[in-house]
Each structure stands twice: as C-alpha cells, then as structure tokens.
Amino acid sequence: MNPEPFLQLDRVIHEKGRLVIMSLLAAAPELSFTELRDTLAMTDGNLTTHLRALQESGYVSLAKSQRNRRPRTTCSLTPAGRRAFSDYIGLLEKIVRQSRSK
Question: What is the pLDDT of residues 49-81, one digit of tens each?
Fold first, then answer.
C-alpha cells in the first residue's frame, strides 16, 4: 500500500472534532454556533477552540450579529475551506480505493 495519500491528509481537518464540523458546514450554507454546539454535544470552549483552528487556517468564516437582542455567531465554510474539504474527501476516497484493490 502506498503511504503517500496518508501523508497528504490535512491535519487541521483530520482531527475528529474539526472533521465533523467541516462535514456539517459542507452540508449547509451556514450554521449558528448554538446549532453546532447542540448537534455535536460539545462544550462552548471545545467548539470555540476547534472553530478558532479552522478560522486561522482560512477554512471557516464567523459572522457576529444580533437576533432578538441576543448575540449570534454564524459559521460557514470559506471557498478555501470547501476546496480543502473536497481535497480531503478525495484523498480518503483514494485511500479506500487503494485498500480495496489489494
């Protein structure tokens, strides 16, 4: 088996918590911080840490606003995030195909 695809996996996305965040955001135009937190059953601090890593990598955009006089943070994938996630999924598919061909 060729180890090269494994070495190319994006370590930012590959972490379990960030992978599921990227997956959810890839399936929706945007999700609120609360929707992500509740869906993933993460603490505020844990989700904030993952979102910060994704934002620093340029994969996620955060927008702050007010809704019913309450602060609201909305999360979405950036174009670079969509590309990175697509590339990541492509590498996973390549790994699966490679393992099945043996």
Answer: 999 999 999 999 999 998 888 899 999 999 999
Give 15-72 as a 3 state SS string. CHHHHHHHHHHHHCCCEEHHHHHHHHCCCHHHHHHHHHHHHHCCCEEEEEEEECCEEE
Residue 77: count of CB within 10 angstroms of its CB: 23
Q: pTM here?
A: 0.89
CATH topology of domain 4-95: Arc Repressor Mutant, subunit A (1.10.10)
Q: Cα 55 vs. chain centroid, distance in angstroms?
A: 10
The domain segmentation of the chain, as residue ranges, is 4-95
